[in-house]
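Narrative of activities, Objective 1.

The group set out to show that a structural description can be obtained from nothing but a protein's sequence at a throughput compatible with the screening campaign. Below is one input-output pair from the validation batch, recorded exactly as produced.
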Amino acid sequence: MVYQVDSRSALAAQRLLRLSYLGFVSLGLPDTVLGAAWPTMRAELGLPLDAAGALLLVATLGVVLSSSASSSLCARWGTGSVLVGSTLLAAAALVSTALATHWAPLLVAALLAGLGGGAIDASLNDHVARNYEARQLSWLHACWGVGAASAPLVVSAVLASGTSWRYAYGALAVVEALLSLSFLRTAALWRDLADTRQEHRAHEHGPLRWPMVASVLLFFLYGGLEAGAGLWTSSLLIGTRDTSPALAGAAVALFWAALTVGRIVIGVRADAIGPARVLRFASYAALLTACALALPSTPLWFAALALTGLGLSLAPIYPLAMHDTSSRFGALWGTRLVGYQVAAASLGVATLPWLLGALAERLSLLVLPVLFVLLALSLIGLQHARQR
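Output recorded for this entry:
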């Protein structure tokens, strides 16, 4: 079922939903292409290994800026126009990277990619949350996983053919440009609460209440927990269970696969069970599986099973909490908070894994799963606070 509050036909609504899915596939493409192409890129351009970290920080800055401003941009220009401009920015970022011969164009491209990606993320999250059921938003985020998994395959295919990594970026730029044309052709169909734009702007600078702050903080900690588990559990398994890099990498792959598949499967029953109930169950399941991962001296199969369970537990939290925002805080506040939550999740991804790694370096790798447990506990507390 699709929620409709105007006379837009069900056919048009399904068309926009399919475009939203494609938009999130395209959102995942630039997020993982750098990691796959970086070894050959930095060798050709003569850059140090850690320069990729600087590019990710610049991109995060762009995401925070554009997602925080997305509600104002959509209120002024319309969701369709914002999506057209954002995908063009993403295409320009990919082209700039493909043509780069030194460091400066890469920094510009990273900022453009962040600005485009943040606005796409926030505006599509808000549109789907306001107009469709929870299952569609869960599937929307599963589409990000499809794009994230596809980009490294594109890079691998291009490099295997003996051509430059630049062609991979060029091919992805064409995908973004075609998507921008699709958004342009459907710009008039995107409903953006036009009848409440003035009221929306009146609320633009109102103070946030504690449940709203708790909702934003939840996304910050969630981003850190998801990215931290994906980044550091391979090192944890190698360093504490004498696991080979290949087996540790396979265990981490199970985590990401469970996260993506979980969003597809849980989305089927999310509305029937109730998003609030699924969120509550998922939060406690994340705590339980993090505790299982923290148990010392367990065999590899048990740790891999716990890690897979953690991925399944985390799967519904981001999309269902995002979907719940508009209904819990109202359409106007919800639109504003969606942008803040996307920005907070990006900040969590950019900063908390670094902090977790620094603590593990100073103390021990065994502190990592304990920190995962603390993050999962905090998610439960914030989930209760945002529901008050």
